């Protein structure tokens, strides 16, 4: 019995290396998760900030849009930074920015501080996305039982989903609703910083630092499919942006639901379903993915518009789920097309361009809705926005059908 035990035991060094490898993967995934969680944590708190600092609904949409535009600027400026200086320094910088954003929110006394915190959050998201995804791929490898892309997806979308839900629950249950969520976020982000700091570098190749904008690139060989996927995914992102910005205002002002946890739940459902939509696309034939996504976006827009018109919660919850699934399918289809059908030397620029379009669609429509709310009120603004999203998805669907009819 003793010999068999010795014979099957792994060498101590191998066990240590395996344990260290697992810890490094967990550290990177956690850093990715908490950084993204910090970007959606303000969502259920916006009504409270409105009361404390005199926010109008229009101001709330601007505060949200500043974050999304910060992500776009960060992607275009620092999208290749982890290739140049290594994954670990960029991950440390991203988590430190997340700590700083939480600290600014924690001590915020006016609108200016909130805007600064949102810009910092945008840069943290831009930095962590590429660095963490690449680090997970390098640490796990192609033959791992856990696919790096799947882990990165759940760290990314899981963070976006959980950040708003966690902040909402803390705002409802804990003392000082505008302070306690940020104490927790700051502590978790600090843990994430330590985690990536103590683990080694995953990339053995660095090109050297050079500050320049990532050139935008639409791959000519898949231009039509790229633009249709970007427009469909952008329509879904526009809904995600508006839900993130004004759900709390709708629930409190129209439905008289003051639960911050409920606000967090609506946005949690939307982002969680976006993650599952990106997994679902792998089971669909490529020719069917984008048409189904467009149909889903039209249905979701109808449900959200019905929620606005009838002042009821159920259509909003279902609409958030359907929009998330459809958005995930559209985004997954677009990324799949880029990574499998575009020229290898332009894939990085093509992916950056794709996400720059998505995050622009996350920001600009939210400001448009804010203007509509200021000119009319929340309900007609939501109904108009839903109609525009449905029209955009319908245009993409008709374009798909027309091109396939010509090909046939």
Overall description:
The chain has 15 helices and no strands. By secondary structure, it is an all-alpha fold. α2 (12-40) packs across α8 (148-173), α6 (87-107) packs antiparallel against α9 (180-198) and α10 (223-253) packs antiparallel against α11 (260-280). The radius of gyration is 22 Å and the shape is globular.
Condensed summary:
With 408 residues, the protein is an all-alpha fold. It has helices at 2-8, 12-40, 46-53, 57-78, 81-85, 87-107, 111-140, 148-173, 180-198, 223-253, 260-280, 286-310, 314-341, 347-375, 378-407.
What's the helix and strand layout?
Elements: H1 2-8, H2 12-40, H3 46-53, H4 57-78, H5 81-85, H6 87-107, H7 111-140, H8 148-173, H9 180-198, H10 223-253, H11 260-280, H12 286-310, H13 314-341, H14 347-375, H15 378-407
Helix pairs in contact: 2-6, 2-7, 2-8, 2-9, 4-7, 4-10, 4-14, 6-7, 6-9, 7-8, 8-11, 10-11, 10-12, 10-13, 10-14, 10-15, 11-13, 12-13, 12-15, 13-14, 14-15
Beta content comes to: under 5%
- Please report the distance between the alpha carbons of the first and last residues: 70 Å
Total count of strands: 0
Class of secondary structure makeup: mainly alpha
The coarse overall form would be: globular
> Over the alpha carbons, how many angstroms does the gyration radius reach?
22 Å
Which parts are unreliable, with pLDDT below 50 for 5 consecutive residues or more?
1-19
Taken in chain order, the helices and strands follow as HHHHHHHHHHHHHHH
Helix content: over 70%
Query: How would a textbook summarize the main sheet?
Result: none
Number of helices: 15
How confident overall, as mean pLDDT? 88
State the oligomer. Answer: single chain
């Amino acid at each position: 019995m003793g010999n068999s035990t010795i014979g099957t035991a792994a060498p101590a060094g191998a066990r240590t290396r395996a344990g260290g490898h697992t810890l490094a993967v967990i550290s990177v995934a956690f850093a990715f998760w908490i950084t993204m969680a910090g970007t959606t944590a303000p969502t259920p708190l916006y009504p409270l900030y409105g009361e404390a600092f005199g926010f109008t609904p229009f101001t709330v949409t601007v505060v949200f849009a500043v974050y999304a535009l910060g992500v776009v600027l960060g992607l275009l400026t620092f999208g290749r930074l982890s290739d140049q200086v290594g994954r670990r320094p960029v991950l440390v910088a991203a988590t430190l920015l997340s700590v700083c954003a939480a600290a600014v929110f924690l001590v915020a006394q006016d609108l200016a501080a909130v805007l600064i915190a949102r810009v910092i959050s945008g840069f943290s998201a831009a930095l962590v996305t590429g660095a963490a995804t690449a680090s997970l791929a390098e640490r796990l490898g192609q033959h791992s039982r856990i696919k790096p892309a799947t882990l990165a997806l759940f760290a990314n979308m899981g963070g976006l989903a959980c950040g708003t839900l966690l902040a909402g629950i803390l705002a409802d249950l804990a003392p000082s609703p505008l302070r306690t969520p940020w104490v927790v976020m700051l502590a978790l982000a600090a843990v994430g910083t330590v985690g990536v700091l103590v683990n080694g570098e995953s990339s053995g190749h660095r090109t050297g630092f050079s500050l320049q904008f990532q050139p935008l690139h639409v791959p000519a060989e898949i231009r039509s499919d790229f633009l249709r996927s970007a427009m469909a995914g952008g329509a879904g992102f526009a809904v995600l942006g508006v839900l993130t910005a004004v759900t709390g205002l709708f629930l409190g002002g129209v439905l008289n639901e003051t639960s911050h946890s409920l606000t967090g739940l609506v946005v949690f459902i939307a982002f969680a379903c976006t993650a599952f939509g990106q997994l679902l696309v792998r089971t669909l034939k490529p020719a069917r993915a984008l048409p189904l996504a467009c149909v889903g976006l039209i249905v979701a827009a109808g449900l959200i518009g019905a929620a606005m018109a009838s002042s009821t919660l159920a259509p909003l919850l279902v609409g958030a789920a359907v929009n998330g699934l459809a958005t995930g399918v559209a985004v997954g289809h677009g990324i799949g097309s880029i990574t499998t059908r575009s020229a290898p030397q332009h894939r990085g620029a093509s992916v950056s361009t794709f996400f720059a379009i998505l995050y622009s669609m996350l920001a600009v429509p939210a400001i448009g809705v804010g203007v509509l709310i200021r000119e009319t009120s929340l309900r007609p603004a939501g109904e108009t926005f839903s109609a525009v999203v449905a029209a955009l998805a319908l245009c993409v669907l008709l374009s798909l059908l027309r091109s396939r009819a010509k090909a046939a």
